[in-house]
Amino acid sequence: MNPDASTIAAGAPIDVDLTPIAEGQDIKVFWRGKPIYISHRTKKQIDEARKVNVSSLPDPQPDQARVKEGHDQWLVVIGICTHLGCIPIAHEGNYDGFFCPCHGSQYDSSGRIRQGPAPANLAVPPYQFVSDSKIQIG
Q1: What pTM was estimated for this model as a whole?
Q2: Of residues 2, 27, 24, 23, the one with CA closest to residue 13
Q3: Residue 59 burial (C-beta neighbours within 10 Å; 0-12, 13-18, 19+)
Q4: Overall average pLDDT of the 90-115 stretch
Q5: Does residue 82 contact residue 123 with C-beta atoms inside 8 Å?
Q6: Are 55 and 46 in contact (CB under 8 A)?
Q7: Where are the alpha helices (H) located in the chain, listed in sequence order?
Q8: Three-state DSSP class for residue 127
Q9: Distance between CA 40 and CA 36 in Å, rounded?
Q10: Alpha-carbon distance 108 to 114, whole Å?
């Protein structure tokens, strides 16, 4: 017994199978009408995100606080720019993360604001791993 479409649209949790997402690839799903980016980060992306001096960031947050322990390769963020609500583009910009072409905000591979007018990092939605290859958002 699955919830009907109106219940899902209102915010029922969604399950996402991570198996088909190749390393270095992003997918976009929708939860509560919002775009959710799920990134299968490479070791290079993780290392670069962790090398950053957190105190130099406009919205200081370590990479480890933005991912689930033991699943560092998976980044799950709400794909809405924190400046004016535009939808950023994945794998664009100077930081191999997200770029919002509307006003130039650039986020790194951890979804943290690095450059531009956005005041905050991309939000991390509530989610959990239900297995090593499946997450539930919501």
Answers
A1: 0.91
A2: 2
A3: middle
A4: 95
A5: yes
A6: no
A7: 5-10, 43-51
A8: strand
A9: 13
A10: 7
- Do 77 and 36 touch, CB atoms closer than 8 A? yes
The identity of residue 106, as a single letter, is Q
Lookup: tokens for 114: 């690095």
DSSP SS3 for 44: helix
Q: Is 103 a catalytic residue?
A: yes
**pLDDT by residue (tens digit) across 44-81?**
999 999 999 999 999 999 999 999 999 999 999 999 99
Strand order in the sheet with 127-131: 14-17, 134-137, 127-131
Q: What's the order of all strands across the beta sheet hosting 113-115?
A: 89-92, 97-99, 106-107, 113-115
Torsion 109-110-115-119 (CA) sign: positive
CATH architecture of 5-137: 3-layer Sandwich (2.102)
Residue range 8-49, pLDDT digits in tens? 556 699 999 999 999 999 999 999 999 999 999 999 999 999
- Say if CB 26 and CB 76 are below 8 A apart: no
